Amino acid sequence: MIESDVLITEEEIFEIVDGDDRVIGQALRSECHGNPGLIHRVAHILVFNGSQQVLLQKRSMAKDIQPGRWDTSVGGHLMPGEGYLAAAVREAQEEVGLNDIDLEFLYYSQIRNNIESENIATFRAFSEGPFEFNCSEIDELRFWEPHEVLNKIGQGVFTPNFEEEWKLYLQWVEMNGKVVSSKNE
Description:
This protein is α+β, with helices and mostly antiparallel strands. The chain is built from four helices and nine strands; from the N terminus they run ββαββββαβββαα.
């Protein structure tokens, strides 16, 4: 018998929440992605530069959900016991190499589709970089003009979740009377 070294990676565990975002259990990532009955939590960050462009990430082709599509600047699942803000800070460092980032909470939202159900907290940040992205999760990073984003919505360029996120962000901007992405508001 020949033995081989097998790399075993531990699968992520997500907290499962009810409709009011109260923790009711835990499940493996593989159980949550594919079962929309298992609501789990996610933190998103929209990163803007001084030219009012939004940083987007092109998801790795190895991702299990929406590979190769452009998505929110930073996004990640909460670890058990972690809050939305702590997850956003951790994901900013892990995904794009941003440390000591100043985050502004924008809004809570929900994604419900036939693949997954997520409760999301979205934050906004401003940075010119430099960015160091995680190559196992991201194929590319680039800044987009807001009108470029609007022109590509519905064409299969972005994840459906990001398209919904962008609509929610524009509604937030309109409701709050704020410039799309300027720190000097």
